[in-house]
Amino acid sequence: MIDHRSGPSGIGDERQVLRQFLDYQRATLAMKCQDLTDEELRRTAVPTSNLSLLGLVRHLAEVEREWFRHVIAREDVTLVWSDQRDVQVAYDASTSSRSEAFGAWEREVDVSRRIEAALESWDVVVPVPRWEEDACVRVIVVHVLTEYCRHNGHADLVREAIDGVTGA
Length: 168
Known about the structure:
The protein is mainly alpha-helical. Helices cover 55% and strands 5% of the residues. Helix 1 packs parallel to helix 5 (137-163), helix 3 (53-72) runs parallel beside helix 4 and helix 3 packs antiparallel against helix 5.
């Protein structure tokens, strides 16, 4: 695995630092999927789970779409793989391909970056239907960051089960 990530800067305001950490975690997910075939990317770590690297990419595409487009930008969009707003459906990547999963994920990351950059402030408060309360954008960005951190831990385990590769 070649590490093309650039780490977050030690200097910056809250928004710059959190944006850099989120981008670092996005790059970590992509790195965990480097140099693998579609079949390897669909492979699960344990027989009792459908969790694969492609499933994680698909899931995080849905996370980006749900939180940035649907919640923050209030776009009337369905999810990519579920018409019932179920981001868990994306885990089943048994018939998916790198181009399909990464195409959707990269598009959603690009849109998320544009939505976030256009905001004057992260103090904007939006309704969050799944939480049944309002939240400021800052809380939502931190939530998305924690989603990546948690799932990149899963990606570590899945990648190691595929070919023994471990590391950042």
